[in-house]
Amino acid sequence: MKFEDLLLETGGFGRFQILILVALCLPRINLPMHFLLHNFIAATPSHHCAIPHREAFVNLTMEEVLLISIPRESDGTFSSCEMFSQPQFHLLLNSSLQSENKSSVQRCQHGWVYDHSQLTSTISTQWDLVCEQRGLNQATATFFFIGVTVGAVVFGYLSDRFGRKTMLLLSLVCSVVFGMLSAASVSYSMLAITRTLTGVALSGVSLIVLPLAMEWVDIQHRTFTGIVSSIFWSVGNMLLAMVAYLVREWHWLLVAVTGPCLLSIVCLWWVPESARWLVAKGKMKQAHRHLLRCARMNRRKDFAVSPEALTRMATDKKPGGSYFYISLFRTPVLRKISLCSGVVWFGVSFSYYGMSMNLTGFGLNIYLSQFVFGVIEIPAKMIMYVMVNRVGRRQSQAWTLILTGLCIGANVVIPKSFTSLRSVVAIMGKGFSEAAFTTVYLYTSELYPTVLRQNGMGYTSFVARLGGALAPLVFLLDEVWRSLPEVTYCSVAVCSGAVAFLLPETLNMCLPEGIEDVE
What we know:
two-stranded antiparallel sheet, MFS_trans_sf, 3 domains, Growth Hormone, Chain: A, transmembrane, transport, MFS_dom, 519 residues, mainly alpha, transmembrane helix, 22 helices
């Protein structure tokens, strides 16, 4: 008897599974509020050099003061990072003139003045992370994703060793602690360290929530569970836009997005440990207790499987044996799956965060752009619900990634003047990107056996977070060539999409329990 047959005897997909999904929705909603928080706490408003001795120009308007103090860029806007060493009063007579003496232009000497009309306070304005310090601003997202990368390795192993629920609780508690410490940061160094540790903690939530839900549902409802869980991510995306719109000060915004983790901890007390994991680890009495509870809640009074029957059903001769990340590469089929899925996860994450962290250029403010990006994800997920069951996981994964890359590449060649067309193509690309992310979570959880599933998810999440960590830094390549970031995102997405064709199909297949099932 396979574990899927056992689930059917407990009612398959009933009230028990629905309640698990509902209980796990809150941590899933909370994830994007932290993962995309960089868009708001590190947003850089328009700014210019602070002008010394402002009181000497009392007879001039602000526009005139800027005219004689700040050089203009080629597009006519005032420079953000340069100022005149001496006031250029002759520009008052003819503003179209430019100072011919290049030596009169210098970098900002007295700090910056920021436009606070949209953002009251960000880390950019608090610590002047602009111009020469722009790299440090982008690095805050990289630090966070480095933490997520480390956490993927740590929690992937620990959740296979000590259980899904225990590690999920631990990661939520740590998320609250480090999230609040981030909000209390008094220096850039403190923020960088606490955001990195927050990333480590939240990685456990990201890694465990979906497999914990998936291991309690039957084959027929696996896709539904994966899509519904993914929709909660999109809801979090939209909620982030609304919360950030209401809370414009970065300290309090961090508090606002960390607080819901407390409610997640409360909800998690009801969620049972994965019976599939308990059986794989030889803990038959605990597994039997949870399965009995599941059958009763699903009104299946005829459930009569004993702990002894579970022992006979266990697929591994050493159910309590330990597996490590190296086990993912010891056998031929698992090795191929691990190498290919690593490339796919890197491409999915790299292109997704590359698009998600670029909220400018749509003619909308950053709050509306964030909300629109969240909204477009929901129909993308609905379409994927049909596609993964009709054309399969492999084709869906490959083509959504390739189409994401093509949309990013299209905006490289579409002229800047075609604003509406560029916006439509970008939003389509965001939809395909989210569809690829939705598919990869479902697909990967079906590729690995139960005894190695969390190790597999930990490994792929590790590779994905490397992509997430590099994505914000790629924006700095625009100093080499304006379109180089987009060309990079496009190339990686298309290449990783092609690699997805090498993975095996899992549509309508039983979840593998042991390594021999995969081989």
